[in-house]
Amino acid sequence: MVYRGSGVLVFLAGCALSFRLFAGVSPEVTGGTAEVLLKQADGIKTSNQGEFTALLRRLGDGSLELSQEQRLYLEYLEAWQVAYRGDYKTAITLLDRVMAQSGDPTLRVRAGFTAVNILGIASRYEEAFAQLDPLVDQLPQVADKETRLTGLSVAAQFYSEAGQYDLATDYANKLLSENPVGQGACRGRYFKLEALFKSGQLRSVGEQFRDGVEVCAKAAEPIFGNLIRSYAAKAELDQGKPDNAIKLLRQGYAEVKETHYPPLIALFDATFAQAFWKVGDQTSARRFAQSAIDSGIKNEYTEPLVTAYRLLYELDKQRGDLASALAWHEKYMAANKGYLNTVSAKALAYQTVAQQVLTTKMQVDTLAEQNKILQLQQALGKKAMEASRLWIILLVLLLGFIGFVAYRIKRSQLKFMKLARRDGLTGIFNRQHFVSEAERLLQYCCKSNRDACLVLLDLDHFKLVNDTHGHAVGDRVLRRAVAACQAHLRSTDLFGRLGGEEFGMLLPECSPDQVLARVEQMRLAIAAVSIGEGGAIVTVSASFGVASAAASGYELRQLMTDADDALYEAKREGRNRVNLSTSRGAQLSLV
């Protein structure tokens, strides 16, 4: 089975994925009964592909007499093999047959979890989540340790991918409690560290990271161990310690290369590129960024690919090769959009299935209420007058209940729609919704021959605020800065968070002079923001880049490029200023 996390695919259905998979071990199939050979094949499917394939061939050539359950067991192993090779459609067909026909509850659950993971790989997230909950409910009745290990691992990974980090941590803790040593201990530590890191609860490299790497090394789980090491390196980068990140990555790079596992190699290369860029080694940063692109999964948008494209864009822009920088920026925008769409699809799939479960429960409750009403009606049939009055009362209650259910469902739908469009910290549009609305509004302005201006703002030295006063103070600064800007925006203006401390605004039907005046007010309002923390006063300033449709055209991509160039020119001129891009290549700066 495969785990799609941090842009890396990790097989979970059997033992540790070892570089021996690629070593070309010659198969030597020994004699034995069908049951012995089936268990032998099951035990080596991730450690010796050559012998595993030979065993399946022998079991399926008709020389051994197999019972019905043994044939289904063989089909399960064959499904695992074709899924490993990428034929997910055939694998799902085989697994569905095993689940429908097998009388062995353990085999049915194993087949179910394998199918869930394959559906996830095939981006059929809603189907995967719909099957996951019933399978997890069956785990307490499963005695087989390997099956429980697989099931808990799949649950932890899927909930983490959907952004349900508390649930992912719960399943990781169950893995650890049931598996104090070995593969389960390694995977439990990995999923727990991943959930804590992604939820922002773990930002410094401590004993937990080192312990996780050591446990995975003892369990012969090189991929999980190096995934933990990659998170440790990212934590060092977040703490502004790129030299430490490079040291950590070098410790595992040789082992990662030996796995011949392209997604993991791409993850390490992309993180290497980030670290070298931060220490000023542009040559190494470019080399590792290109390697991350070459090593990654083809035709798939992953986090390492997004990182590599962004770094190459920054490197070429820094050296003045604007044509190449623009080409990399276009690839970065496409990759980032694709990656964010995938992440959003997973979260939305989880919420959709959760909503369906809630709706089904409410429907069952409604049917139960209706059944009670019918029973009461029959019991009171002889008392016509009393029954009539009771019926009216119950009917009103039923209509009220149905109305309440409809209200709850509608409110939940509106809530999920808002979550999909809004930034969780500031409450303004997230990047994806801002881009979508901005493109729509620009089309309207173009057709109606109305001017529009795009404004990009970036808080100056914001990383220093986080590093000095902590992320809690940084979050307060972001919210106060957003509030300061909103005071000068109209209801028709668009305002969104593009990432980190960078924000975008689209102001329709405004001339550049009008926009500059309003943006200058925003700059002064942000500069006036102050937050008391531990006896110190935290202040912040912002730099603005402005591009108008009159000069840059109505294409959002060109407007963002010109505004971004103007923003960086403002940064270079000393920050805390407004810079207008009057044409492609000329800027007007206002302090």
From TrEMBL:
Q: Name one Pfam family in it.
A: GGDEF
User: SMART domains per the record?
Assistant: GGDEF
Q: Which UniProt key words apply to this protein?
A: Membrane, Transmembrane, Transmembrane helix
Under Enzyme Commission nomenclature, its number is: 2.7.7.65
Enumerate the cofactors the protein uses.
Mg(2+)
**Which ranges carry the GGDEF domain?**
450-583
Transmembrane spans: 390-409
Q: What sort of enzyme, by top EC class, is this?
A: transferase
Q: A GO CC term?
A: plasma membrane
* PROSITE patterns assigned to the protein according to its UniProt record, in alphabetical order: GGDEF, PROKAR_LIPOPROTEIN
Task: Enumerate the GO terms in the molecular function aspect.
Answer: diguanylate cyclase activity
Q: Which GO terms describe its biological process?
A: cell adhesion involved in single-species biofilm formation; negative regulation of bacterial-type flagellum-dependent cell motility
Query: Per its UniProt record, what PANTHER family does this chain match?
Result: DIGUANYLATE CYCLASE DGCC-RELATED, REGULATORY COMPONENTS OF SENSORY TRANSDUCTION SYSTEM
Stated name of the protein = diguanylate cyclase
Phylogenetic placement of the source organism? Bacteria, Pseudomonadati, Pseudomonadota, Gammaproteobacteria, Lysobacterales
